[in-house]
From TrEMBL:
Gene Ontology CC terms, in alphabetical order: plasma membrane
Gene3D superfamilies: 1.10.287.70, NAD(P)-binding Rossmann-like Domain
Keywords: Ion channel, Ion transport, Membrane, Transmembrane, Transmembrane helix, Transport
Membrane spanning residue stretches: 12-34, 73-95
Lipid bilayer topology: Multi-pass membrane protein
Protein name per the record: Potassium channel protein
GO biological process, one term: potassium ion transport
Principal subcellular localization: membrane
One Pfam family of this chain: Ion_trans_2
PROSITE patterns per the UniProt record, alphabetical: RCK_N
Domain of life according to the entry: Bacteria
Subcellular location: Cell membrane
């Protein structure tokens, strides 16, 4: 027993790969030995391997078993001690590895290896939940990576991966596989009281994203939430692709609702994929020459063309030619969008 204790103590320190190779070696060697000892009981090597496997995993179907004294002694001495013990160590190491993987994933210490995902940085739990719900509702197959300073993911979902750390550091953003992402959304840190400091932190993170984009010669689409409209010029200087005004947008929406009662319901439909008609992006079709031609065809299909991706003045330039590569926005339901 003392020898076995020393043996298993050493095996516990061996890596999972090495212990697996050792067990496979023991299984193959035992199969050869038992077939040599009892060729009539085990006429084929496959029968010997089958019996060895069912023995070490303690299943023991009983369809094969040693009949000679030498075969039974070999089974008790080698397989019942070394074989079953080593298999128990493998199973234990597998469970330990799964537990460690789950722990590291929950704590945001694992790198994300997928691509075409959305990266969300910062913000409160409630805001992140709403954003995650909207993205997952509009794209059933996408993944989302949340990057935050916290020690656990603010949103629990099978398609949400969490990376813990400072999002202003390149190493953390690379851990989120930023180069393969569809877009990066940087939210205002709600824990910061002063809007100047909050926008300063957002600008620092967004600038890091743009730095990685230039350094890697990749186009990373960056969206930033801004507290003060007067700070937009600073974000434009940093080549941020898109800006969302936080508090001021809510104030302006309230003002529009007061001036034009019911208008907030229209904005609500546009802002949510779960409310009525939705906003979709489409590409120019080869036979579309002017905006009017595109708008009329889309209208017949049940969609309304509202923008060329830059402005809402489509109606005033209906006779202008549509440049190649233009990405346009329409309002329609999902069924119409699929037809388009």
């Amino acid at each position: 027993m003392w020898i076995l204790q020393r043996l298993f103590t050493k095996l516990l320190k061996v890596s999972l790969l090495k212990i697996t190779l050792i067990v496979l070696g023991v299984i193959l060697l035992s199969s050869v030995i038992i077939k040599t000892l009892e060729p009539e009981t085990f006429p084929r090597y496959l029968d010997a391997v089958w019996w060895t496997m069912t023995t070490v995993v303690t299943v023991g179907y009983g369809d094969y078993s040693p009949s000679s004294d030498l075969g039974r002694i070999f089974t008790m001495v080698l397989l019942y001690t070394v074989g079953i013990g080593a298999m128990g160590i493998i199973i234990g190491k597998i469970f330990d590895s799964l537990t460690l993987y789950k722990k590291m994933k929950e704590e945001g210490k694992l790198a994300y290896k997928g691509k075409d995902h959305y990266i969300l940085i910062g913000s409160s739990k409630d805001k992140l939940r709403n954003v995650v719900e909207e993205i997952l509702n509009s794209n059933k197959k996408c993944d989302i990576v949340i990057v935050d300073h916290s020690n656990e993911s603010p949103v629990q979902h099978d398609r949400v991966h969490f990376v813990s750390g400072n999002p202003a550091e390149e190493e953390i953003l690379m851990q989120a596989n930023i180069l393969e992402s569809k877009s990066v959304a940087v939210f205002t840190d709600d824990r910061i009281e002063f809007p100047e400091y909050a926008d300063g932190k957002t600008l620092l993170i967004a600038s890091r994203v743009e730095h990685i984009s230039k350094q890697s010669n990749r186009n990373i689409y960056t969206i930033a939430e801004i507290m003060k409209e007067k700070h937009i010029a600073l974000f434009e200087h940093a080549n941020i692709d898109e800006f969302i005004l936080s508090n001021e947008s809510v104030s302006k929406l309230m003002a529009q609702a007061a001036i034009f009662p019911g208008s907030s319901k229209l904005f609500k439909q546009l802002l949510s994929n779960m409310e009525g008609e939705n906003l979709y992006k489409i590409e120019k079709k080869p036979h579309w020459t002017t905006y009017k031609q595109a708008a009329m065809e889309l209208f017949d299909l049940g969609a309304t063309l509202i923008s060329d991706g830059h402005a809402l003045d489509i109606a005033r330039k209906h006779n202008e030619e549509i440049p190649e590569g233009t990405e346009m926005f329409v309002i329609c339901d999902e069924a119409t969008y699929k037809k388009i």
